[in-house]
Amino acid sequence: MDKYKLNIIGYDDAFAIGDNASLPTAKSGVGAHLQAEVVADNLLGYEAKFNGRTFCPCISNDTASFVISDYDHPPVRVRCSRFKRLIEEVFIAGYWSFLKYPRMWRPLMETMFEATKPSVLGEIGW
Ligand SMILES: Cc1cc2nc3c(=O)[nH]c(=O)nc-3n(C[C@H](O)[C@H](O)[C@H](O)COP(=O)(O)OP(=O)(O)OC[C@H]3O[C@@H](n4cnc5c(N)ncnc54)[C@H](O)[C@@H]3O)c2cc1C
After folding, report:
1. 73 CB within 6 A, ligand 1
2. In this predicted model, what pLDDT tens digit does every residue of 65-108 receive, in sequence order?
């Protein structure tokens, strides 16, 4: 399959996303969500590409870290903190609302993904 457009090679109207897809990136809920947006945009006629992005939480009792990578960058260094645990709690509490009201939440999500891009965090990490 095309790892950017997510279509089955040779077919422009058949796509695979989520754990079902054979992509060179981690299988994750975040990945499935971002891939769904790419396929939806492509079906609407926009030029959208999946960049292999991950943003997966690693939670301990009161702190959290995230595995952040994309096709072009291995996981960046992300330190555990209580603040990141709070971010994860907000994400868990708000997720269904994010899905239900995409016009309201998508700009916030896009800002968060933009601010935590591996190329932005670089070697300093987060
Ligand atoms: C314990 C655990 C913790 C995880 N934690 C995280 C996390 O913190 N963050 C993160 O980003 N990802 C996490 N993941 C990964 C994430 O859950 C998956 O990557 C994501 O759910 C994949 O979504 P999907 O829609 O592709 O597949 P699924 O969520 O597996 O959905 C597939 C659906 O298809 C249904 N189905 C299967 N066969 C058929 C059939 N023949 N007919 C009809 N329906 C069928 C299934 O019942 C299921 O509802 C975790 C996974 C596990 C197991």
Report:
1. no
2. 999 999 999 999 999 999 999 999 999 999 999 889 989 998 99
